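anyone seen this seq b4? input:
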Amino acid sequence: MKEEKLSAKEKAAITRDLFERYRRGETSQTENEVVESPESITTGFIFPKIEKPQKRRLSPVLTGSVASIALLIIGIFVIYKSQFPQTNNLEKQHVATDIIKTVILADGSEIILNSGTALRENFREVWLDEGEAFFDVKPNARQPFIVHLRNGLTVRVLGTSFTIQSYPELPFQKISVLSGKVNVSIQNNQSVELRADEQAIYRNTQLSRQITNAEQKASWRTGTIVLENATADELRLRIRQLYNKNIVFESGTEAMSINITLDQVADEIAILYDLSCRITDDKIVFYPKNAGDVP
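predicted toks r here
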């Protein structure tokens, strides 16, 4: 029986349907290979069992039209890939809203997310979009574990444990190492290597290293927050996480440097800075003692 040939419109419709199903992640492995190989498009591999190519001479005009269509299809594919670089059927997203959440990766590595944290992962590659996370990474000498942060900051390890703090409302990002070695780098090729009880701080496009108590930095896992030289902004963030309340300073102490362990926080801060405080349903207000208790 003579094979039924497809018209140009029918081929175009099949091609559009193929790319649309590929975009939605509904294509088979064979179809993925077809779409991801521009050479297969130009050679007509999309239609191998639909129509056998005929040996005939094409006019220069027709040859140019076919080439233009092929280039257009390839161009659309390239533009699509550049517009949606994160599209990956294997990528998983994890969000911890108001609770601490534990994530176990396919390789056995463990990630603990603090509240207010959003993270995406694909085996041993992670994108920490915002928040704070503790990583306990399983060793794998053949495949480093990589964490991508804001502003082009990248963390690479083989097997170690460390904490990352990366909140958009704070003017810094911190990586603190509990065990093993961690390499932290930025886009201008500046990098630092960290060992246990060292941390990297990224602030104002600069990367620095200093000594720290890494166990204290990770103490939020058990509900305790240790602040060292913290600003009022960081204190507000921690109070929201622990107590779901906002802090208001009415005494103009925005430039304070806070060193404190948060448990019974209101009374401790009031004593430390010689303030009075009042607690409402949604906030803790600190004010000078001579201002009186204004409701």
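The helical segments are 8-23, 29-35, 38-42, 60-83, 214-217, 232-243, 265-272. Residues 40-45, 47-56, 77-87 have pLDDT under 50 and may be disordered. kinda curious what u guys think
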